[in-house]
Description:
The complex is a heterodimer of chains A (168) and B (181).
Chain A: H1 6-17, E1 21-25, E2 31-35, H2 37-49, E3 57-65, E4 74-82, E5 87-95, E6 101-103, H3 112-123, E7 126-128
Parallel strand pairs in A: 2-5, 6-7
Antiparallel strand pairs in A: 1-2, 3-4, 4-5
Chain B: E1 14-16, E2 19-21, H1 24-33, E3 38-42, H2 45-54, E4 77-81, H3 89-98, E5 104-108, H4 109-114, E6 135-137, H5 144-160, H6 169-177
Parallel strand pairs in B: 3-4, 4-5, 5-6
Antiparallel strand pairs in B: 1-2
Helix pairs in contact in B: 1-5, 2-5
The structure holds iron/sulfur cluster.
Amino acid sequence: MSELTNVYIAEKIRNQFGDAILSASEPYDMLTLVVNPSIAHGVINWLKNDAEIKIQFLTDVCGAQFPEIEGQEFCVIYHLHSLTNNIRIRIKSFLPASNPIIATVTDLFESANWQERETYDFYGIIFEGHPNLTRILNMDEMDYFPLRKEFPLEDGTRTDKEDKYFGR
Amino acid sequence: MSTELTITKAPAGLEGPGFFATNIDKVVGLARSNSIWPLPFATSCCGIEFMATMGSNYDLARFGSERMSFSPRQADLLIVAGTIAKKMGPVLRQVYLQMAEPRWVISVGACASTGGIFDTYSVLQGIDKVIPVDVYVPGCPPRPEQIIDGIMQIQELVRNEPIRRRNTQEYKALMQQYGIQ
Lengths: 168, 181
Ligand code: SF4
């Protein structure tokens, strides 16, 4: 078995998925792949079942928003960990604001359940096939996705602040 | 070691051999104010300060609040200490509704009073948005001395409150304002 370097793993994934892997980089030595949203689930599934890389653990699922990149406003980020090889891989998928839908990975990792709900709660990213995609941290009555940049961070009901002192 | 005891002074009244007559309001007020059962609703850093207030150094028990009531049904005073998230708002309200009259509320710290530093979408901007408050204690967090001062002000309120206050139009209007029957 050859050594599992980032370059080697990236090459291996490229051979498998070809052009659907849009880019690979190594910020802070962590292999980061930008993949087409339609194959994100496939890549994670493959990494999990690959006899060599052996990803067993989904560390994190989170979202990000880049309103200035047209057609790629939303990003879903998966952090994966191989406990046997002590390798971490980051997978990113960009989604358009008009249709922020991506396949759930709850069928691969049960732990994705709450993490995807959280991402939905804050960014409104829809995880297709999720068993219970409802809000998890914010109150159920909330009618917007608070971490989207078009919404103000501050609460509109605040009464004791003089706006001019707080730059509002 | 001196064992000098201070006993609360009796209210003004008419005294003679074998009898003592005074105003029932004053007697009830005196009894209530020196035996307040608080319900601590401590959610964050201010809650830690409240714990210090309860502990032996500051010892809230000196003011007749020895017994913390962890059931709202047997509590007189709701001590809200800490940040109340909007999701917690209905819970806090439910706790308040379960308390029997007469009930008082003290809001400890900037967060409970106004939202404090958390001017954000997830935090209730002051508990007075969901329940009426009697005394606000400022500070982030307030020191135990301040919390005790707030409780002494509650005692003052309790001592001077006419027993029929809860039946007044004014009080009913206040409750109405919060949608509480
Ligand atoms: S007022 Fe300050 S100390 Fe108290 S709960 Fe808020 S942040 Fe914490």
